[in-house]
Design brief:
With 241 residues, the protein is α/β, with parallel strands linked by helices. The chain has a single domain, classed as NAD(P)-binding Rossmann-like Domain (Rossmann fold, 3-Layer(aba) Sandwich). It contains eight helices and seven strands. A seven-stranded parallel beta sheet has the order 3-2-1-4-5-6-7, with helices on both faces.
Length: 241
Amino acid sequence: MIMKIALIIGGSRGIGRAVAIRLAKSGFAIWLTYKGNHDAALSAKSEIEAAGSTCDLIPFDVSSFEETEAALGVRLETVSPDVLVYNSGIARDNLLMWMTKDEWSSVISTNLDGFFNVTRAVVFAMLKAKRGRIVVVSSTSGQIGQAGQVNYSASKAGLIGAAKALAREVGKKKILVNVVAPGFIETEMTTEIPTEMVLPLIPLNRVGSVEDVASVVNFLCTEEHMYIHGQVIGINGGLAM
């Protein structure tokens, strides 16, 4: 039996890692991309293989169009992944009045340009195959904004707009496109945020886990009877309604 393939962009740590492991348990072979943390990628690969699946590690910088083409181009000529999860993202928080050009550009190039670089190539393969599911990982910050995150919020809001437009383009070819928007999730990216300041804002009164996000992504990628398309699903405990 040929395994379906899930391409996880930014899958070595945090949400991406949890998504990769969950999809592996659902029977997908994993193509896992990462930028430079080889130890984290190898650790994720071990967990995926322990779950009974296979894992190909693909290191490259999504912000580089040339690196993306080199890393994915040959693969996509012959094989179209059944699922693409775009999870690559960085944060460089600062108030706009103090924000540097690099803090703005690095976030936009990774979070938004990276989506273009990756998804353009993958969609072409999916269109030829006439099937596929794409899940874009945005953020509550992209829905409602967050002080100190003008760059991050802009990039994550941009992903929502891009995904909705793409959904209109490819739906007739049986390619489903949706967005998940995690709120305050316990990852390396949120370790410096005081939990006691955030909990009063969350009706469920708890911080989210990476598994909370992975379960929703898994549903969007595996559910047979799927009529959800072009939608943004908030995973935030009620932080944004």
